[in-house]
Inverse folding.
């Protein structure tokens, strides 16, 4: 179970790094000009939504860490019941 939660955290880190790469490669065109992409970024990186809601800046490294931690918690919530259902069979 620890490996699966670590994989969830790694997936969160990869998502944050992917958004960072996208934003740095399309620097002249801001992400706010594409509302669909902006909504996907808010959904996949919850720290971005919190930063805009509470009006505080978020560094890139904090975004990486927070997204990995968020996905690890999601993995814990998913893998716990999944493990119990798997053992019940």
């Amino acid at each position: 179970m620890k490996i699966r939660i670590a994989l969830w955290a790694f997936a969160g880190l990869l998502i944050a790094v992917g958004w960072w790469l996208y934003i740095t490669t399309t620097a002249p065109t801001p992400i706010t000009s594409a509302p669909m992409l902006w909504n996907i970024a808010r959904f996949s990186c919850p720290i971005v939504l919190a930063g805009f809601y509470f009006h505080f800046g978020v560094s890139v490294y904090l975004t990486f860490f927070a997204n990995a931690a968020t996905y690890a918690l999601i993995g814990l919530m998913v893998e716990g019941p999944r493990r119990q259902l798997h053992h019940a069979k």
